[in-house]
Design goal:
The protein is α/β, with parallel strands linked by helices. It folds into two domains: about 130 residues, 2-enoyl-CoA Hydratase, Chain A, domain 1 (Alpha-Beta Complex), CATH 3.90.226.10; about 150 residues, no CATH class. Helix content is about 35%, strand content about 15%. The chain contains nine helices and seven strands. The strands form two sheets. A four-stranded antiparallel beta sheet has the order 2-1-6-5. Strands 3-4-7 form a three-stranded parallel beta sheet, with helices on both faces. Strand 3, helix 2 and strand 4 form a beta-alpha-beta unit. The chain is globular.
Length: about 300
């Protein structure tokens, strides 16, 4: 939690960052105590279903202060604080016997009074969801604590992005409709969700080969349409591209120490050079924000009073 508060302090002035309520109901506030900011320009925070706990504290604070855009998919939804209890120490055992017990001892809340518990942090601009929300995240647990709300902390928003958000959304939607790689990603996600919903895999060799060939044909078709030198989306359903043939996404069934080192290095190079579709689009969104604020003084004044992005 301390790291989340310090990180938030790089982008906001003095003020509360997160609230914590103990099991007894006592509420404490963790605040940034350093005056000034390290960066006062546009901020974008990318989150996904795996963003939990401290990362949710940071994203929520940036959002509540109106300091930046939250982009991606809803976060994990962990709004609780745990502590480990050594049962052997409690029982005064000389030798380990009972292990440890993880106990929920507190809840954390946003400065606006809400919590990330169960619902997570909702992005301002949604990206296609790569994960399975039904089986991953706080809401997937049967015994998860419910969402709750307390009184908002005493804080002053640094800006207001509500006015510029509809413009950024429209620009984003128009751009991704023309972005073939983004469309391919959406198709892959839809296919992955369909496979999860089917919840079965054929053991017939001919059927499996047919499915594999269809997948490779789809990737090969994409590669043929893609301009030379442009990256491809490589992590389809968790498979790695076979070295020397980027479209062959085959699982060789080998352990890490059984594979050829040269092939492994080649595959790693391909992964490093692959286009990060979501990161690139997030950069485009922030670029849109800069452009909009430079041409609209009234919006710039609302987003961040006294912003250097305001026209002279």
């Amino acid at each position: 939690m301390a790291e989340a508060v310090e990180l938030t302090g790089l982008f906001i002035d003095k003020g509360p960052v997160v609230q914590q309520r103990s099991a007894s109901g006592e509420i404490s506030v963790e605040s940034n105590t350093r005056a000034g900011v390290a960066w006062d320009g546009p901020v974008g925070v990318l989150i996904n279903r795996g963003s939990a706990s401290a990362s949710e504290i940071f994203a929520a604070a940036i959002q509540d202060y109106g300091r930046g855009l939250i982009i991606g998919e809803p976060s994990y939804g962990k709004g609780t604080v745990q502590s480990m209890v050594d049962l052997d120490r409690v029982a005064k055992n000389n030798k380990p016997q009972f292990g440890e017990l993880k106990m929920t001892v507190a809840q954390f809340f946003r400065v606006n009074g809400g919590t990330a518990q169960l619902r997570g942090v909702e992005p301002d601009i949604l990206f296609p969801a790569l994960s399975d929300a039904e089986n991953f995240g706080e809401s997937s647990f049967d015994n998860a604590l419910p969402w709750a709300q307390i009184k908002a902390a005493d804080y002053s928003p640094a800006g207001d992005l509500k006015g510029v958000l509809p413009i950024l959304l429209a620009l984003h939607e128009a751009r991704v409709k023309k972005d073939k790689d983004f469309q391919y990603l959406q198709q892959d996600i839809a296919e992955s969700k369909l496979q999860r919903k089917k919840n079965l895999v054929s053991l017939n060799e001919a059927t499996r080969r047919k499915e594999r060939d269809a997948q490779e044909a789809r990737i090969t078709s994409r590669e043929s349409r893609r301009d030379t030198g442009r990256g491809a989306h490589e992590d389809i359903v968790g498979k790695e591209p076979a070295p020397g043939k980027r479209s062959a996404l085959r699982d060789d069934g080998l352990q890490a120490d059984e594979r050829n080192l040269a092939n492994e290095l080649a595959a790693e190079k391909v992964r490093k050079n692959a286009k990060d579709i979501l990161l690139n689009e997030a950069v485009h969104i922030l670029s849109d924000e800069v452009g909009v604020l430079k041409t609209d003084a009234r919006l710039a004044a609302r987003v961040k009073p006294g912003s250097p992005l305001m026209p002279d």
